[in-house]
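During the reporting period the student researcher (J.K.) took over the structure-prediction task from the postdoctoral fellow and processed the backlog of single-chain submissions. One of the processed entries is reproduced below for the supervisory committee.
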Amino acid sequence: MPGKHNRGRGEGSIYQRADGKWCGSLMAADGKRKVLYGRTRQDVARKLNTALQARENGALIVGPRQTVAQFFNRWLEDVVKPNLRPRSYSVYEGKTRLHILPDLGKLSLASLTPQHLQRLYAKKIAEGVAPKSVNNLHVVIHRALSYAVRWGEVARNVADAAEPPRVPRREVQPFSAEEIATLLAAIEGHRHQWLWTTMLATGMRFGEAAALRWEDVDMDARLVNVRHTLGVRNRGPMFAEPKTTKARRLVPLPQIAVDALTMQRAQLGLQRAAAGDRWNDLDVVFPSPSGRPLSQSHVLERFHRVLAEAGLHRRRMHDLRHTYATRLFALGQHPRAVQDLLGHSRFEVTMNLYTASVPEVLREAANQLDGVFASARPSGARAVLASDTTDRH
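J.K. obtained the following structure tokens:
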């Protein structure tokens, strides 16, 4: 029969409403009453015990009922938009609107559980969404909920207890020395020849090369100053600051890059004349036919076409950067120097990405140990080895 079931003083109460729904209530430290709901008395009892423990720890939240959608939209406007680049905001907003809120938006923020998140991740995987993309959803959710905790909206970040899918490690696919020669021959005469050659010879990301302006190129000193990357606005590409301070860097130009940039400058004169009044004078080193920054998707499509025609395996343009890095390692360059040239913010990123991709570096390291240990061999061992070699001949 509906009614109240009192517990000990200060322990709250559990009762069943006339409509059959079970409820619980307790007084928070600030004198406000918190009400809990559940399908059964046991559900409410569990929630009430959790709330009592939170009150003991000073973490019991009492506030207006707020949905996940209301909180996430407020977080996007108040935190993400003012503090991140427009492209990052666009990514966060898109993931929230398209993938998170359709499933979780109507839930109250206070009732969100790790199971809700786990169910969302499993559903996305079943729909064919890549594990890395689902992992990125987890990052967005975790970051948003960390502000919910900071603002006192919830007592804990439930994303801490959810397990995102494991992301298979993507193999780095640098071009071998033979493939580099094949590629350079295949792109000869292509309108993006000098862009791809410069990327290969400097390790610049596509966004960095596409945002490069002539004021950032010092041909006499043989240096490029990487100060920008491509961002995105509603009307197309824009110049943006690199994500990290390490990404802002000076990159020395080998002769092949100097030659490529010299040829590109000459080619621009013809391109500018052909565009006429349509030309946008943005000082871009590798512009589109109208002088604006290039579209990565269009350039990538042409890159894949060139690879196919040359009989080379399909790769990303980013593998030109990987090739630059692995060749530096193969030439014995110091890993710290490679890190600085690539603009990696963390040394582990450089080492994890590239050292395993250059087996000759590992072989050379092992071979150098011969010189270290040769003089340290016991004399008897040297005699046996010498004798064994003589016997074989």
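The committee noted the following: The mean pLDDT is 83.
J.K. will present the remaining backlog at the next meeting.
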